[in-house]
Q: What sequence folds into this?
């Protein structure tokens, strides 16, 4: 069995995940294989790029969350939860948004570094709260990231590797329950 959610570029063709059938252990094994194969194909860490070059209010929001998540209340009403809801509806992360996280006119949604940073924030929120909505979005954003082929120029490879590894740890842990 193949992990079907990363067969095509999910930035170009959005996956809705609606009515997705569950295929049992084979599906879970295919998921693990896809993620491990992806990790094995990443360029070396020497090609690390810093995310500091990113701009846009979305980057600032996610960076602030990632740096201070331990001091931020993560609840269904917090700003990050609203951001997560917008992502769940559109499966897009825009560079510039209004106060309700709707895209502004000059916004683009193809900066893979924003998806990596968002994945990291989902991981932090999940670790802090254990709410499955954060793990769900972590998996979906990593589906988008791992569906891309050869687009890792200018990407923080170290952070990308870390967020995929942390996702795998969280999924393995959740399987035990």
A:
């Amino acid at each position: 069995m193949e992990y079907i959610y990363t067969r095509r570029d999910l930035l170009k063709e959005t996956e809705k995940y609606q009515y997705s059938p569950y295929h049992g252990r084979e599906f879970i094994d295919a998921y693990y294989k896809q993620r491990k194969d992806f990790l094995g194909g990443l360029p070396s860490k020497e090609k690390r790029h810093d995310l500091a070059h990113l701009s846009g209010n979305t980057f600032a929001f996610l960076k602030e969350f990632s740096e201070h998540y331990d001091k931020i209340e993560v609840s269904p009403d917090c700003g990050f939860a609203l951001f997560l809801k917008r992502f769940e509806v559109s499966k897009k992360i825009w560079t510039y948004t209004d106060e309700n996280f709707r895209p502004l006119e000059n916004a683009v949604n193809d900066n893979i570094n924003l998806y990596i940073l968002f994945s990291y924030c989902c991981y932090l929120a999940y670790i802090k709260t254990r709410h499955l909505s954060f793990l769900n979005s972590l998996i979906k954003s990593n589906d988008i990231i791992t569906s891309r082929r050869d687009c890792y120029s200018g990407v923080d490879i170290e952070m990308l590797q870390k967020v995929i590894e942390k996702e795998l740890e969280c999924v393995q842990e959740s399987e035990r329950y």
Q: What stands out?
A: Residues 119 and 141 are 6 Å apart (CA to CA). The mean pLDDT is 88.
